């Protein structure tokens, strides 16, 4: 029927049955067509042996050697009873030999080929005598190797194709894993940026809002100053958020982003922290030199997050930020003289191994540029964050 869709059977026994039916028609039907009118046509037993020889090949998918043994036994019995070994019977034996080949076992191929040749030779001599010994041997030596060589070639090709497909699958899987890892790393980087920007800014806004609410009636000028600080902080936070969100606008005409913050902006950060109630000083040791943008950004964010935690958790305190330019690294030290750890158990962990996003983010930033971070309480009170970041003298 026109337009009919044919579905390929997916079950092995369906294919095996189809192959057996086709081979039975060729072997049994072909023998009947060729030898039925001859001087010695096969009898019923002969046709039964032919049918068994062709039918045994159906086991090749599950037991290739068993199928070959059954086919050879029936074929040799047929020849031993006087049947011709030059007719369609050869197709059944060739099919069994083809299915029994395994390229990874070449000696097995040699053994089954030699056993088939020897079996036909012995039965042929026993049934017909040694009159045509040489001619029969040459004939058998000609057709028996054909299915073995063909089976070896086809099996090798299939193995190579399967290996190539597996390599391609693994390569595709590796590409997908790399892509997923890059996406995860980018998400983590953006999450750190958002946390650092929002955490510091919200801490400042929250503190100044509390101040403004407290002194609104008695000291309006101080309340006004707190509101101006909130305005400036929120404006800066919005600017940085626009810059971070610009990373996500791939393909769109995003607005031009300001450069990522670096050590040059630490002075403004320290000054802003001092203005909102935590006196903070900045000290620089060693000759200042240009560092890579990644290291400068990591150092800035570590100081920013540390000061944000001072604002949130240290209570009445002062802070000190120290940058030390050493031979091959930059040492960043942020210390405060506040409470160290609030009574409710939050904020700065006394051991420096807490699960807060701030400390985790600072550790990840330091590790991302090949550095390390230490956090913990000071012996005389307060808290300290120490970062050691690689900063070779020849950094761009």
The helix/strand series, from N terminus to C terminus, equals HHHHHHHHHEHEEHEE
Task: Determine the number of helices (DSSP H or I, runs of at least 4 residues).
Answer: 11
Strands, count: 5
Helix-strand category: alpha+beta
Quote the CATH topology of the domain at 262-396. Heat Shock Protein 90
Determine the mean pLDDT: 77
Question: What is the overall shape?
Answer: rod-shaped
Low-confidence stretches: 1-9, 251-257, 341-355
Q: What summary fits the major beta sheet?
A: 5 strands, mixed
Tell me which CATH architecture of the domain at 262-396 applies here: 2-Layer Sandwich
Report on this structure.
- There is one protein chain.
- Helices cover 61% and strands 9% of the residues.
- It contains 11 helices and 5 strands; from the N terminus they run H-H-H-H-H-H-H-H-H-E-H-E-E-H-E-E.
- Residues 1-9, 251-257 and 341-355 have low confidence and may be disordered.
- With 396 residues, the chain is of the alpha+beta class.
- Helix 7 runs antiparallel to helix 8 (220-246).
- A hairpin with a 3-residue loop joins strand 2 and strand 3.
- The protein has a 5-stranded mixed β-sheet, covered by helices on one side.
- The longest helix has 71 residues, at 145-215.
- Among the domains are: 12-143, no CATH class; 262-396, Heat Shock Protein 90, CATH 3.30.565.10.
């Amino acid at each position: 029927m026109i337009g009919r869709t044919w579905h390929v059977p997916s079950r092995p026994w369906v294919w095996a049955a189809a192959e057996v039916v086709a081979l039975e028609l060729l072997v049994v039907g072909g023998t009947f067509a060729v030898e039925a009118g001859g001087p010695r046509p096969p009898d019923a037993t002969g046709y039964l042996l032919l049918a068994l020889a062709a039918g045994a090949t159906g086991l090749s998918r599950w037991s290739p050697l068993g199928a070959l043994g059954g086919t050879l036994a029936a074929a040799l019995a047929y020849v031993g009873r006087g049947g011709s070994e030059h007719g369609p019977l050869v197709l059944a034996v060739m099919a069994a030999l083809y299915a029994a080949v395994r390229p990874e076992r070449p000696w097995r191929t040699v053994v089954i080929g030699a056993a088939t040749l020897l079996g036909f030779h012995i039965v042929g001599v026993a049934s017909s005598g040694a009159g045509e010994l040489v001619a029969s041997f040459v004939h058998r030596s000609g057709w028996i190797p054909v299915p073995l060589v063909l089976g070896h070639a086809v099996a090798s090709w299939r193995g190579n194709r399967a290996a190539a497909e597996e390599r391609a699958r693994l390569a595709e899987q590796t590409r997908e894993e790399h892509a997923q890892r890059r996406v995860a790393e980018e998400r983590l980087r953006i999450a750190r940026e958002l946390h650092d920007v929002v955490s510091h800014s919200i801490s400042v806004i929250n503190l100044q809002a509390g101040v403004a609410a407290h002194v609104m009636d008695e000291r309006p000028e101080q309340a006004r100053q707190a509101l101006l600080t909130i305005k400036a902080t929120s404006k800066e936070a919005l600017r940085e958020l626009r810059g971070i969100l610009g990373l996500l606008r791939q393909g769109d005409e995003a607005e031009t982003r300001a450069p990522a913050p670096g050590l040059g902006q630490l002075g403004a950060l320290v000054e802003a922290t001092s203005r909102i109630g935590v006196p903070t000083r900045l000290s620089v040791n060693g000759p200042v030199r240009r560092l890579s943008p990644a290291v400068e950004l990591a150092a800035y964010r570590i100081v920013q997050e540390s000061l944000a935690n001072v604002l949130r958790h240290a209570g009445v305190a002062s802070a000190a930020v120290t940058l030390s330019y050493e031979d091959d690294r930059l040492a960043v030290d942020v210390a405060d003289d506040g409470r160290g750890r609030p009574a409710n158990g939050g904020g700065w962990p006394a051991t420096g191994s807490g699960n807060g996003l701030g400390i985790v983010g600072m550790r990840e930033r330091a590790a991302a540029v090949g550095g390390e971070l230490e956090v913990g309480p000071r012996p005389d009170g307060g808290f300290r964050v120490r970062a050691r970041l690689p900063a070779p003298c020849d950094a761009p």
